[in-house]
Specification:
By secondary structure, the chain is of the alpha+beta class. Helix 2 packs antiparallel against helix 3 and helix 4 packs antiparallel against helix 5. 52% of the residues are buried.
Amino acid sequence: SSTMMMASYYSKAAAVLLLAASATAFVPTTSRGVSLEPLCMNKKKKQRPKVNSNKGFGGGSSSSGTITSSALESDMLIRPKTTSNFQYAGSIRPGLQTPKRIVPSEKIKFPDYALDGQPKNRPALFPWVIETKKPEEIEKMRASGRCAREVLDLAGRAVRPGITTDEIDRIVHEASIERGAYPSPLNYHNFPKSCCTSVNEVICHGIPDDRQLQEGDIVNIDITCYLDGYHGDCSEMFVVGGEDAVDPVGKRLLQTTYDCWVKALNFVKPGNDYKDIGAIIEDHVTREGFTTVKSFCGHGIGSVFHTNPNILHYKNSEPAGKMAAGHTFTIEPMICENGNNYLMWPDDWTATTKDGGRSAQFEHTLLITPDGVEALTGKIETSPVQFWERDSNVHKGLWLGTTPSAKEREGALNSNLLNSN
């Protein structure tokens, strides 16, 4: 998510920590990670989406249960909710959106929220109660993670000046379906698209639309694929126009975000406290003059999109539990070039920095093993090598994990990819 989190709050009467049921994607928290009034991303009751007679879900005019470019062009564009006096923080504005795309239900397994937008599974009562995946579940998560990685790489290759984020969403949607997967963001709490595209000052949950990417933009593409009943979630930054198109501050923001993320990834192993991830991230970025977002967090993942543990990306003392083999979750810090306060657009999804400064983010779905951690959404033989991977002083080349098997695969990949770039 996204890159999407669980909200928590303290019951004043019982002084017991409760988790909000199937909370909205990322939910703002106080400095202690506790939200007394969880944010409702979609406050108004939404009408149940109509299901086409072809047993597909979504919008569009294709009678075959799949969406085509010509069908999109013929559809009426949607103007997102906004207000005439809303003060945007930076230069990005909401554009026109195409209707929700179709997912053929006869071919694709749907998550429980696909039709009505409401996730049905609730997290455990206490945040330190974390599901341990069985071996057969882990294999399914490896498959969904690989699927998400392939789709993210395809989306990243499409990034160029002039392409719209809606076109990137179409690529993501079609690539997910081709692999037998449902694009997890679609209709999650009524989110209208199949991925999130967050440009420049957008922290997270940017909705793909008809705005064309411009040279020098930085964009996060957040992909989650639901395959065979399990989600795989990852995101990555891309520079529109390539490395030379970004200014020195933007380049340093991207490098710092990547490096703090890898430091946090390297910390993961059985027995460590989840709460300590945040200090690793915050200590690194503040030394570089940047800030870490405190309003959105990483999350547990599996057959449920967002569950325990909550992963806070700043110093905290929250009782998030201890890491153990079989846990699967995301780390996805959002780092800002200026202040870390956020502004929510009237669409109830798009969160930007309040001062208009740029933000960057990376995300993996991780599996803790007895001997370390592996990235289930790690890069593969055909993945691009970005300049922050090439130039990192924290970890040179691609990062796949800390286990012996992950290090072996990583070494072989880096030998090939770094020499070819």
